[in-house]
Q: What sequence folds into this?
């Protein structure tokens, strides 16, 4: 299957024992089945790609336009577009249901994108890994403070991008070049070596890696 990626959700982490007896921490993703809802072409859309859906949505949460777009696939909760060459999409048709085992196999290198866990307002020690101030010589309130954030006369202001306390997490994050350890075709599960961004049951976007040396 030429489609470069699919949508899924994060189920959690497990330990997988390899053939050599090594224990590997893996993230379990439920990927697909994803019906094809639209095929983008260069003349009509300005680029070539494929739109897929994932997850059934309650009928009352979908308006008539969305219901008409998904057609016979029923109301879908999530939609996403994956870029691909026109020659790679020749065998695809709208309504085709793509499974994880048709796109990914053991040993593939993939990029997984999701929304990281929101941590709320956090200080610089937790958010940026600052060491903190001295714990002695009269410093009673500098333990987790950021210290100086700028000069006085020049530039006379705090520069943009200075690392400070603030909202942590809750951002779209991508873990790149991860290894596929196992694929369970019957249950639509993929085991990814290491961790991926997002909370349990969070939506993830998984595709063949863009890193050099990975399978495209």
A:
């Amino acid at each position: 299957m030429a489609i470069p990626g699919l949508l899924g959700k994060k189920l959690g982490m497990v330990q997988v024992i390899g053939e050599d007896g090594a224990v590997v921490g893996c993230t379990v993703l439920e990927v697909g089945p994803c019906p094809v809802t639209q095929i983008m072409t260069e003349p009509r859309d300005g680029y070539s790609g494929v739109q897929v859906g994932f997850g059934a949505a309650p009928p009352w949460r979908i308006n008539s336009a969305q219901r008409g777009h998904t057609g016979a696939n029923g109301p879908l909760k999530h939609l996403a577009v994956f870029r691909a060459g026109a020659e790679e999409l020749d065998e695809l048709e709208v309504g085709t249901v793509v499974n994880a085992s048709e796109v990914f196999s053991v040993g593939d290198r993939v990029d997984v994108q999701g929304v990281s866990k929101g941590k709320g307002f956090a200080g610089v020690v937790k958010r940026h890994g600052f060491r903190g101030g001295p714990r002695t010589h009269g410093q009673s309130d500098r333990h987790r403070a950021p210290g100086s954030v700028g000069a006085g006369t020049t530039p006379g202001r705090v520069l943009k991008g200075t690392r400070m306390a603030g909202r942590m997490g809750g951002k779209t994050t991508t873990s790149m070049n991860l290894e596929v350890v196992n694929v369970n075709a019957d249950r639509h599960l993929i085991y990814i070596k290491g961790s991926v961004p997002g909370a349990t049951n969070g939506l993830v976007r998984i595709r063949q890696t863009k890193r050099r040396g990975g399978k495209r």
